Amino acid sequence: MINELGHFALILGFMVAILQATVPLVGARLNHHGMMSFGRTAATAQFVLIAASFLALVHAFVTSDFSLRLVTLNSHSLKPMIYKISGTWGNHEGSMLLWVLILALFGACAAWFGGNLTHRFRATALAVQGAIGVAFIGFIIFTSNPFIRLALPPFDGQDLNPLLQDPGLAFHPPFLYLGYVGLSMAFSFAVAALIEGRVDAAWARWVRPWTLAAWVFLTIGIALGSWWAYYELGWGGFWFWDPVENASFMPWLLAAALLHSAIVVEKRESLKSWTILLAILAFGFSLLGTFIVRSGVLTSVHAFANDPERGVVILGILIFFVGGALTLFSLRAASMQSQGIFGMVSRETALVLNNVLLAVSAFVVFVGTIWPLVAEMFFDRTLSVGPPFFNMAFTPLMILLGLALPLGAMLPWKRGRLEKGIRQLTLPLIFALSCGGLVWAMQTGRSLQAPIGLFLGAWLVSGAIADLLQRLGREKDFGRLMRLPRADWGKAIAHSGFGITMLAIAALIAWEKEDIRVVDIGETWTLGPYDLTLRDVRLEMGPNYRAHIAEVELGQNGQMIAKMYPEKRFYPVAKMPTTEAGIDYRFLRDVYVVLGDAQDGGSWTMRSYLKPFANWIWAGAALMAFGGLLSLSDRRLRTAPSGHKPRAPQAAKATPAE
Amino acid sequence: MKYLMFLVFLVCASASAAVEPHEILQDQRLEQRARDISKGLRCPVCQNETIDESSAEIAADLRVLVRERLSVGDSDQEVVDFVVARYGEFVLLKPSVSGSNLLLWGMAPLMLIIGLGFGVVFVRRRRGQTPNVQDPSLSDAERSELEKLLKP
Question: What architecture (CATH level 2) is domain B28-108?
Answer without folding.
Answer: Orthogonal Bundle (1.10)
